[in-house]
Amino acid sequence: MTDMDAPLVTPCNIRICEVTCDSFRIVWDMTPEDTARATHFFIDLSRKESKDPNRFKHRDVPTKLVAKAVPLPMAVRGHWFLSPRTEYCVAVQTAIRQPDGDYLVSEWSQVVEFCTGDYAMEHLQQLHDKAKGSAGRLLKFSVFYRNQHPDYFDHVRKECGGLMHPALKDSSGSHGSPVNGKLRGVFFSCNTEFDTGLPPRDSPYGPLRFQVPAGVLLNPNIRLYFADFYCMYTAYHYVVLVLAPAGSEGDAFCGPRLPRLDLASNPFLTYTAPQQLGQGPEYRHASDVILEVLFTEPVHLDQGSVEQISGHHQLMSLTTADAKKDPSCKVCNISVGR
């Protein structure tokens, strides 16, 4: 048996590093002899939820990626449509390409697991740029509002001293948004109807509406961040924004993760300081997207008012609670995942 015919040692001590939302590097231990002989690496990647115990049943053929041998760690990017925040299983083989085109291969390594990351700032900027094209013109508004059922407001009054406390952001929208499941806030809307300039009469979230003057949440002491852009198999799109008081815990979370927007000049939500003595500030919202505004601090009911809406509240098809983003929409998806 020649050196070239000697069995390859099974790769061991697999390590995953430099993981992003759509790439990773992989490295493993090889003998000096195998390092010199190997011409190719076979990488088999699958989502963790695959329960097939015979994942590598074709043990002598590459099942996913065949790559020429390179110095380790090896970068893996673009060979699969990796999704953000997704758990994967990976195993490797080393191989020597024979003159007849066949491969002499090692045994598959042990399977290791890892999880991809959130969208990076560059990916959120891509989402922001797409959202900008759908925002439409800016319309004046005067209040932020939040609809809920009577039980919610009863609980706030009796158990929370009138304070609406921030809750953890759910998983609705883009899977890779850094705020999902990590940032706490109180959700508000600010969109108005074209004909009245007032909040819509209907809501899928409840028959009671808390309204607060816009200046309570949007003022020069507040920092504004872009967090997401998505749709739910519908023609209209949602933009998620975060309002965080400067220097707050929410601000510290958002600063390194989300694009910060200029309060006075952005496509979605603006505050314009009074231009003349006696004038008040001006507030505007984008007309062609539905804004979901996450305020990162508690809000007291005494800062606004709770009233019954004049329309219906059974529009449950419009609720975005844990709603999944349409992965086929060309308007709001970027190439790194959903």
UniProtKB/TrEMBL annotation:
GO CC annotation, single: cytoplasm
Domain of life: Eukaryota
Keyword match Glycoprotein: yes
Entries under CDD domains matching the protein: FN3
Entry keyword set: Glycoprotein
Domain Phytanoyl-CoA hydroxylase-interacting protein-like C-terminal stretches: 115-338
Pfam (any one): PHYHIP_C
Function: Its interaction with PHYH suggests a role in the development of the central system.
Subunit structure: Interacts with PHYH and ADGRB1.
Protein family: Belongs to the PHYHIP family.
Name used for this protein in its record: Phytanoyl-CoA hydroxylase-interacting protein
Source organism of this protein record: Betta splendens (Siamese fighting fish)
Record gene name: LOC114861522
